[in-house]
Amino acid sequence: MTRPHRTLADDLRDAIAPRTVALVAGVLLLQLGFILSYVGAFHAPKPHRVPIAVVPTQPPTIVGLLNALPGNPLRAHVAPDEAAARKEIADGSASAALILGQKQRLLVASGGGTSVVTAVEQVIKAVEALPPNREGPSLRNVGVEDVLPLQPGDGRGLTGFYLVIGWIVGGYLMAALLGVAKGARPATLRRAMIRLGSVVPYAIVSGLGGALIVDQLLGALTGHWFALWWLGALTVFGAAAVTMAFEILFGVLGIGITVLVFVVLGNPSAGGAYQTSLLPPFWRAISGALPNGAATDTVRRIVYFGGHGIGMHLLVLALYAGVGAAVTIAAAAALRRRHSAPLPGQAG
User: Fold this and answer.
1) What's the rounded Cα separation, in Å, for the pair 323 and 245?
2) Higher-pLDDT residue of 131, 268
3) Residue 20 has what pLDDT?
4) What pairing do the DSSP bridges indicate for beta strands 105-108 and 96-99?
5) Are residues 120 and 142 in the same domain?
6) For residue range 128-141, what is the model confidence (pLDDT) as tens digits?
7) How far apart are CA 207 and CA 166, in angstroms?
C-alpha cells in the first residue's frame, strides 16, 4: 500500500503540537513583560513626595518652596525641633530632615535606601542654586549628616532585597518542582494537604538559613537573625502556597502566573535597587501589595528602624500565606468532588 504524501504542514503539526505553541507564546509574553517591567521601573527614577522634616528658625517659607518644586519630589512638613526631626527619621516616618539656622544641615538615613538619600541631596542642591528668596531663608552650603548609616556589610543597602528574592524564589520553585514531579493537580484532597504541609518545614529551614547567611556567615545584616528567620519562613510559605493555588487552578500555566506575579511584577516594584518613592506610579502603587515589596521593606525596618511600621506588611504576607493555603485546599476539594461525581445516567 502506498503511503499518503505528507506535506510540510503535516510534519509541523506532528512535531509541534498546538498546546506547545500556546506555551511558547506564553513564555514569549512573559519574556517581553519582564523587559517592559524592569526597564519601565528603572529607566528614569525620580523622587515623588519623599517625606522630609524641616526645622525652621523663622516662619517656614522654605516648606512651601520645597512642596512647590516641579514634579513634587518632596513632601516637606515642619518639625518643632531637631530632636523631633531625628525621631521621625529613626521611626521611618521621614526620609530626611532639613535643619535651618546658622549652620544648615541635611540629616539623611542611608539605612532607608541610598537611592532616596542621593535623590534628596540632588533636590536640595538644586534648591541651593535658586536665586535668594527675599521672603525667607535661602539654602546655602547645606552639610549632609547620615544619622542612620548602613551596616558595614550591607553594600548599598541591597542585602535585604536579595535576601527576600532568595526566599521567594525558593518558595515558588519548591512548589513548582512538586507540581512537575507529582502533577500540578494532586489526585486527592489528602495529597494536596500533605503537599501543602511539606512546605512548612521547608519554609522554616529556608527562613533560618537565609537569616544565618546574612548575619553569622557574611555579617551583612547583623543583630536581627531571629526576627528575620520567621519573616523568611512566612515569606517562603506564602510564595509556595500561592504557587500551589495557581497550579491547582490553572495547571502548568499556574507556574507562569507565579513568575508573572513574583518576578515580572514583584521584583522591580519591591524597592530594592530604587526605593518605592523613586519608582513610576504603577510600580509604586503595587509595591506594598506584593510579597516582594512587603518583605523587603520589613527587612529594612527590622534592621534599621526598630521594627516601626511593619504591621501592614506582615498582614500582607500573612494574607498571601493564608489565602494561598485556603485556595489550594478548596480547589483540591472541588476537583475531588468533580472527579467522584457519577456520570449522567449512572446510578447514584
Assistant:
1) 9
2) 268
3) 74
4) antiparallel
5) yes
6) 988 876 555 678 88
7) 10
**77 and 188 share one domain:** no
In a domain, 18, yes or no: no
User: Quick one: average pLDDT of 240-261?
Assistant: 91
Spatial CA neighbour of 275 closest among 42, 37, 86, 35: 42
State the alpha helices, DSSP H only, in the chain: 8-15, 18-42, 61-67, 82-90, 114-128, 159-182, 189-212, 225-250, 253-259, 281-286, 291-304, 311-340
Q: Identify whether residues 160 and 129 lie together within a single domain.
A: no
Residue that terminates a domain, selected from 119, 146, 173: 146
pTM score of the predicted model? 0.90
90, 305 Cβ separation under 8 angstroms: yes
Same domain? 301 vs 199: yes
Mean per-residue pLDDT over the chain, rounded: 89
What pLDDT is recorded for position 347? Answer: 42
Give me the mean pLDDT over the 18-39 stretch: 87
CA triple 228-165-280, angle to 5 deg: 110
pLDDT in tens, 277-287: 999 999 999 99
Partners of residue 144 on adjacent β-strands: 106
Residue 29 lies in a domain: no
pLDDT-derived band at 299 (thresholds 50, 70, 90) equals very high
Q: How confident is the model at residue 346 (pLDDT cuts 50, 70, 90)?
A: very low
Q: Which domain holds residue 100?
A: 50-146
Cell of 25: 507564546
| 138 CB-contact burial (10 Å; exposed 0-12 / middle 13-18 / buried 19+) | middle
- Count the residues in the chain: 348
Q: Which of 249, 232, 250 is nearest to 170 (CA)?
A: 232
Q: Which residues contact 329 (CB under 8 A, 6 or more apart)?
A: 189, 192, 193, 196
109: how many CB neighbours lie within 10 A of its CB?
26
- Range 129-138 contact pairs with CB under 8 angstroms and sequence separation of 24 or more: 133/61, 133/62, 133/65, 135/61, 136/58, 136/59, 136/60, 136/61, 136/62, 136/65, 137/56, 137/57, 137/58, 137/61, 137/62, 137/100
